[in-house]
Amino acid sequence: MTRYEPAIDLDAIVAIDTHVHIEQDAHGHSSLPGDLAEAAAKYFATGGLQPELDAVADYYRERRMAAVVFTVDATTNLGHEPIPSADIAAGAARHNDVLIPYASVDPRRGAAAVEQAKRLIEEHGVRGFKFHPTVQGFDPSDEAHYPLYRVIEEAGRVALFHTGQTGIGAGMRGGRGLRLALSNPMLLDGVAADFPDLQIVMAHPSVPWQEEALSVATHKHNTWIDLSGWSPKYFPAELQRYAGTVLKDRVLFGSDFPLITPDRWMRDIEHTSIKPEALPGIMKDNAVRLLGLGGAA
Predict the structure, then answer these.
(1) What are the pLDDT digits (tens) for 224-251?
(2) Who is most buried in 101, 139, 242, 251, counting CB within 10 A?
(3) Do residues 142 and 184 touch, judged by C-beta distance below 8 A?
């Protein structure tokens, strides 16, 4: 087993995409059950595109970008085996010039999830953890999950939370039982208060709770926002204003690939009001600092 260690030439890359999904493993196993995967492909009009990890590495290498890669473990809520995070870490170790692995554990597994997180950090070298409260079916503010957050905080790893609306389950009967309110960013305010050294990333424009996300981020300086999942030209005006000013040091480029391509994201960012001087930080420098790459704290 090879433990992941980054070997990214920061001078050679133009950007770090902090939000990239691995939706399929090398054996064709999908990260989502078939009905959810089919509905999501229709909703996002991706044509069912599910590149596996080696293809994702090649894709980003061609673009002189690095990428944070992960899946979502929602075993309890969806009754579906995830792509193993250990496999993603191993793949990232093979491509450590461009890939950075996050893990995912099922918070509803309690103590077992805590032990799994410890192993993924110590044995596999993952750099963060991805949570999707709506898909995983858990309230991130519930103190039952605090032992898991404590492990992540003590290891100096990142906690990335999906926030806002999701297309997963959209259009299905009852949204397939998935609950949007679990992804309200205000649920992370108490977590940020109780774990002040835990670096929390609120993923996506948090529609319909964009102002809540901006409020949390301006008050809790251990919180960040990634700009994934939407074409930048559709970003809410307040998000554009904050990203270019008061939050410019804690906003991150993320595409949500394969749902949005980095090519489209970078093309459409020119149609926003985000100040050009904020873009170097958003595209790369903030992520370098967050992830401790190149010796950065």
Answers:
(1) 999 999 999 999 999 999 999 999 999 9
(2) 101
(3) no
Is the Cα torsion angle 7, 195, 229, 71 positive or negative in sign? positive
| Verdict on whether the full-model pTM lies above 0.85 | yes
Q: Give the largest Cα separation in the chain, rounded.
A: 49
Note the Cα 186 to chain centre separation in Å.
18
d(CA 254, CA 91): 20
Whether the CB-CB separation of 157 and 121 falls below 8 Å is answered with yes
Chain centre distance of CA 205: 12
User: What is the distance between the alpha carbons of residues 113 and 42, in angstroms, rounded to a whole number?
Assistant: 32
Contacts of 94 (CB under 8 A, 6+ apart): 2, 54, 57
Q: For the segment 79-128, what is each residue's pLDDT rounded down to a tens digit?
A: 999 999 999 999 999 999 999 999 999 999 999 999 999 999 999 999 99
8 A C-beta contact, residue 222 and residue 197: yes
Query: Contact, 221 vs 251, CB < 8 A?
Result: no
